């Protein structure tokens, strides 16, 4: 059984109680390695010296279209340390905000940061508030695009879902302890598995490191009356990543995101709560790499070209050609049909080598994926499909649509998996076995 939290009614405040049960992430070897090897940079791009961007810049500096992470209200740049460590190991360049009081001000500051870093276009991964700001920045720069693609994790498109737009202008008056209490109110409590509990503990620690002005500005951005105008960013490739267990987002908010981006790819996780990038990092890293595959071999690749084999680049070129033809065909397809399934291009990214020094061959597992899951295989059967709950094959059990707790991070792998680590690959096959 996971950890059970009960906030005491005695002398300890809720924040103090959380800090007393600090989890293992902060003292883990991975986090300590990250802090000792990746320096924290502070950059000022505005006339106001109080607006300081704190970021981690890792990976090859030759990459001109890196992946940038934008944290949630309670997080700092290092909450994405597991993604930074994993992705930079494969040759990706990733960069993981200061006190801004409105969305336009944030977008202008972020544009100046990209100019300072000499980055023309970027891929954005935004979590919760970070996802909303990523969409607003893409909207802000739509006339002169600076965003190549979006990965939206537990993100929202309209701040009115929190029903706090009327208080947005008063956060700057509130003391820090009251602001922290507001944020902690959205954190899960009760029985949790150890990884999720450790993830929440770590986020509480990061929350404690934020000052009153930082927290007030983030809550203002989170609740200030605003919404995304999707017609301005409809041409940007989007992946929506969310969870089926408890999170701060309501089902209605998730459905609104699906309607806003009917052609977006969907990455569903069975569990993960508000912070899947911490407690389900293997799956999140896998989805990120799949999303970035479509840009391999182009000027917008977030990976060092030397890390991609000639064979993989050739496959990707064929995929891009096929994708373009498919896009033309999609214009004649009914909207409902387009909404039901998301298709990833043919892929072949690199994988951890086996103990013998070579790559593992998983093509013998093809039969496990074939029965009842796809209508047909192409000549090169390495397409990766993600099914949504509306399009789950009957053979996997109709109960999937009615029991949310049974839903899996559902991936159809008629894909040659050469991207993930052995641990991630093992998880993928476990998911497939569960669906059999």
Automatic annotation (TrEMBL):
Which locations, inside or outside the cell, does it occupy? Cytoplasm
> Disordered: where is this region?
355-374
Protein name (Swiss-Prot/TrEMBL): Maspardin
Q: Does the keyword Coiled coil apply?
A: no
Q: Which GO terms describe its biological process?
A: cell surface receptor signaling pathway
- The UniProt entry lists the main location of this chain as cytoplasm
Q: Which GO terms describe its molecular function?
A: CD4 receptor binding
Q: Which superkingdom?
A: Eukaryota
Q: Tell me which residues make up the AB hydrolase-1 domain.
A: 106-182
Which controlled-vocabulary keywords does the entry list?
Cytoplasm
What protein family does this chain belong to?
Belongs to the AB hydrolase superfamily.
Work out whether the entry's keyword set contains Cytoplasm: yes
Bias class Basic and acidic residues marks the residues at 357-374
Q: Name one GO cellular component term.
A: cytosol
């Amino acid at each position: 059984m996971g950890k059970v939290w009960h906030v005491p009614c005695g002398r300890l405040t809720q924040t103090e109680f959380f800090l007393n049960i600090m989890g293992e992430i902060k003292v883990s070897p991975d986090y300590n390695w990250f802090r000792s090897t990746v320096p924290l940079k502070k950059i000022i791009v505005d006339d106001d010296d109080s607006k300081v961007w704190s970021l981690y810049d890792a990976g090859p500096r030759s990459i001109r279209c890196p992946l940038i992470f934008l944290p949630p209200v309670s997080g700092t740049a290092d909450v994405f340390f597991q993604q930074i460590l994993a992705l930079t190991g494969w040759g990706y360049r990733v960069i993981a905000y200061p006190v801004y009081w409105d969305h336009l001000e944030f977008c202008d500051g972020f544009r100046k940061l990209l100019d300072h870093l000499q980055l023309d276009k970027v891929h954005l991964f935004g979590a919760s508030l970070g996802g909303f700001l990523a969409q607003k920045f893409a909207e802000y720069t739509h006339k002169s695009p600076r965003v190549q693609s979006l990965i939206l994790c537990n993100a929202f498109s309209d701040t009115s879902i929190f029903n706090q737009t009327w208080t947005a202008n008063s956060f700057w008056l509130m003391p820090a302890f009251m602001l922290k209490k507001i944020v902690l109110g959205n954190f899960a409590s009760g029985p949790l598995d150890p990884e999720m509990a450790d993830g929440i503990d770590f986020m509480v620690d990061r929350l404690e490191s934020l000052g009153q002005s930082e927290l007030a500005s983030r809550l203002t951005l989170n609740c200030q009356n605003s919404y995304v105008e999707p017609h301005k960013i409809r041409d940007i490739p989007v992946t929506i990543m969310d969870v089926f267990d408890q999170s701060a987002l309501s089902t209605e908010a998730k459905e609104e995101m699906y309607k806003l981006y009917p052609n977006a790819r969907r990455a569903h996780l069975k569990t993960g709560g508000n912070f899947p990038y911490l407690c389900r990092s293997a799956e999140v890293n896998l989805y990120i790499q799949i999303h970035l595959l479509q840009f391999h071999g182009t000027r917008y690749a977030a990976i060092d070209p030397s890390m991609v084999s000639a064979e993989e680049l050739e496959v990707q070129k064929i995929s891009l050609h096929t994708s373009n033809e498919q896009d033309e065909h999609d214009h004649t397809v009914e909207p409902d049909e387009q909404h039901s399934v998301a298709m990833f291009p043919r892929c072949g990214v690199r994988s951890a080598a086996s103990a013998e020094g070579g790559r593992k061959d998983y093509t013998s597992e093809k039969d496990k994926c074939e029965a009842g899951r796809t209508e047909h295989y192409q000549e090169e059967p390495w397409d990766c499909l993600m099914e949504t709950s509306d399009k789950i094959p009957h053979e996997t059990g109709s109960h999937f649509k009615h029991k949310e707790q049974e839903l899996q991070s559902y991936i159809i792998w008629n894909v040659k998996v050469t991207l993930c680590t052995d641990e991630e690959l093992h998880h993928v096959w476990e998911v497939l076995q569960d669906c059999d």
